[in-house]
Amino acid sequence: MKTKIITLIVICVLVLNGCMKQYKPSEHQTDMLAEYIAGTVLKYDKNYETTLLTSDINAKLNDYVNDLVYEDNKDVNLKDLASREKDLDEEDRNKGTEDQLTDDNKGSKENTSLNNDTSETIMVETLNELLNIEGLEFAYKSYDFYEEYPKKADSYFNLTLKDGNQLLVVSFSVHNTSNEKIELNLSTSDINYTVNINQETVYKPIMTLLQEDIHFINEVIDGGEEITALLIFEVPKDTVVSKLDLKVNQGDKSTIINLE
Fold it and tell me: Residue 109: pLDDT above 50?
């Protein structure tokens, strides 16, 4: 064991001489450096009871010794060195504790966020269950493809499409089943619509200035009256439909309507 320690001491001294500027320490300083290095080496002996220093602390201690001996030409006081080592070790422990607390708090916040995010989508059977407006009955009517819409020559509004696209227009009826007037305002409702074509491609509807656009319907429906509501999608002209599903979401509720 002593042979190993002496060998390590010699190596350390040679490395220090090679890396630092040339300055010849006094015999007293050399003895104290050797004692310090020997003490440092012993810290790695499994039979030597002490706290293993981190590489960061060792680097700071080496800088401390270098500044004293090679820069300021002062003697190294082993008591001061031990005190310096203790201070650095304490700083390292405190930093580790603070880092651990930060990580724990961060993990706690993340877990809390995940635990609070417990909302699940509730699937309902019909659009009526989803919207749940007393006295009004919503029903899917039909869909069709158009190269232009609306087709009325005297229409004040026409949709402009990108080249190679067409319009998929989905029609709904809204029937007031009561004898009283009912106000229907869907312009402020948080409802999302998507259409899935052939279980391959999903499209969101475009918003238009059409009076029947379901996004902006805001009117009073007389008792027994029925109005039309439209959803309009822009899709490629070469679309061949084998299956068409409309998904409607509001809050934590969702429904899927098979368009036939």
Answer: no
Rounded-to-integer distance, Cα 151 and Cα 163, Å: 18
End-to-end CA distance of the chain: 88
- The answer to whether 61 and 87 have CB atoms below 8 angstroms apart is no
Read off the pTM. Answer: 0.54
- Return the residue matching tokens 């493809």: 145
Q: How confident is the model at residue 115 (pLDDT cuts 50, 70, 90)?
A: very low
- CA-based max dimension of the chain: 111
155 phi, psi to nearest 5 deg:
-65, 140
pLDDT of 172 reads 96
The total of other beta-carbon atoms located within 10 Å of residue 1's CB is 8
Both tokens of 12, joined, read 């350390």
Q: Are strands 253-258 and 122-123 parallel, antiparallel or unpaired?
A: parallel
Pair of tokens at residue 231: 């959803």
CA-wise closest residue to 223 among 175, 174, 176: 176
Q: Is 161 exposed, middle or buried (0-12, 13-18, 19+ CB in 10 A)?
A: middle
User: Domain-by-domain residue ranges, the chain?
Assistant: 2-114, 122-258
- Pair of tokens at residue 144: 């069709």
Which top CATH class is 122-258?
mainly beta
